[in-house]
Amino acid sequence: MFSLKPKRLKLLFSIILMFSISWSSMLILGTYCFNHNDNFIQNDADITVNITVADGPLVVQNDFVFLKQWESTIIKIDISDINNPSSPTNVTDGELRTGDYVVYENKLFVSTPENMLVYDVTNPGSIGDPIYNWSNPDFGNIITSADYFAIVNDIAYMTENRILYIFDFSDLSNLTYLNSSNLDICSNDFTYNNGYLYFPLEQENPIDESSCYYFGLVDVSNPSVLNPMITLENDSISGSCDVEVKGNYAYLTVNDFDNHRCFLTVVDVSNKTQPEKVTSVELGADYVHHITINENTIYIGLDDEGLAVIDISDPDNPSEPIYNRFNRFPCDVRYVLVHNDYLLFTYNPGLGIIALSEASKSNLATIFYPLIIITGLIFPVVIKRKR
After folding, report:
1. Cα(264)–Cα(243) distance, rounded to whole angstroms?
2. How many CB atoms are located within 10 Å of the residue 35 CB?
3. How do the domains of the chain map onto residue ranges?
4. Which residues of the chain have pLDDT under 70?
5. 298 Cβ contact list (under 8 Å, min separation 6)
6. Would you give the distance in Å from CA 34 to the centre of its chain?
C-alpha cells in the first residue's frame, strides 16, 4: 500500500499550507481592491492618434474609423494596419457644425443643424463631395435634421426636440415619411434591437420631481402604429447616457450628478410591457459616458478614471469592474468600440487603441499569480534546507 514517510508528509503539508495562505491573501486583498475601487491597470494605450478634443460616436467602415473632432469636423483614420494608423483627415468642412452620424450600406449620413449630408464611403480612402444634401423640403417640411438617428432595413429612426420620426430611406432620391410620436421625454441617443428602440433618458418626473426617468422603450415593429413609451424611473438618479441591448437585457450607463456617483444598470426587457431593473454596479468615477458590448464583456467610458471592463456572462450578477487609467488623469474616455481584437476609444489625447486582452487583464492576476508560483518553488527548498 502506498504511504508517505513522515518527512515527506510534513513537506506536503507545508506546500498545501503555503498555497492556502497565498490564495487566501489574494482573495482578501482582491476583495479589498474591488471594494475600494483600486483594481486599476496603469498601462497605456498601445497606439494613440493625437486629435484635439476627440469625440464620437466611433464608426468603422472598410478599415477606416470615423469620429468627430469636438462638435464640428467628421474625420477619418485608416486602421488597416492597426499598429500604424494614419493621421486623421477631414471628411466634412472644418467650419461645419455636425451632430449625429451613421454608416449604412456604404453611405455616411451626417446630421447638421441645417441639413443632412450623405457621402459615398464605398472607398473611404477617397471620399468626394456629398451625394445628397437634404434640407427641410426633402423631409416633407416635417423635420430639418436629427439629434440622433439610426437606419435599419432601409427604415430611418430620427429624434428631434423629443419627437421620434420614422422615414423610409429605400429610395434616397425620394424620402417617404411613415410616422412620428411625441416622446415628451429628453433622450440621450437610442439603440435599435429586434423591433424596439431603447432610450437612455434624462428627465425629472413632472409629477414627482424627486424621481427621474432613466430608461424607456418603444415598439417600432410596425411603424404605422406607435404606442407610448414604456419608462422606468429611479429616485435620486439624474439620468442615463447610453444603452446597449444583449439578449433579454438592456445595459445602461446611469449618472447621479448630485452625489457624484455613476452606475452600470441592468434591466430585464424580456417582458417589453413591463421592463424590470435587475441590478446596478457602482463605478469608481464621478461620471460615466458610453458603452459597447463584445460577447460577454462590456466596456464603459468614464470621465476621469478611464475605462471600466465588466463581465456580464451572468446578467443578474455582473462582475466587479476592472479599470484602465492609461497613465493619464483625467482620461475622459467617452466612446468605445470593439474592432476585431482591439478596443478603440476616444480620450484626452485623441483616439486610443488597445488589445482586448490587455484591456480586460486584471492587475491582481498580474501581481499575485507570479507571486504564488515563485513562493511555491522557493518555500519547499527553504524548508528542506532548514531540515
Report:
1. 10
2. 10
3. 1-39+362-387
4. 1-46, 204-211, 235-236, 327-330, 360-387
5. 244, 251, 264, 291, 292, 309, 310, 312, 318
6. 21
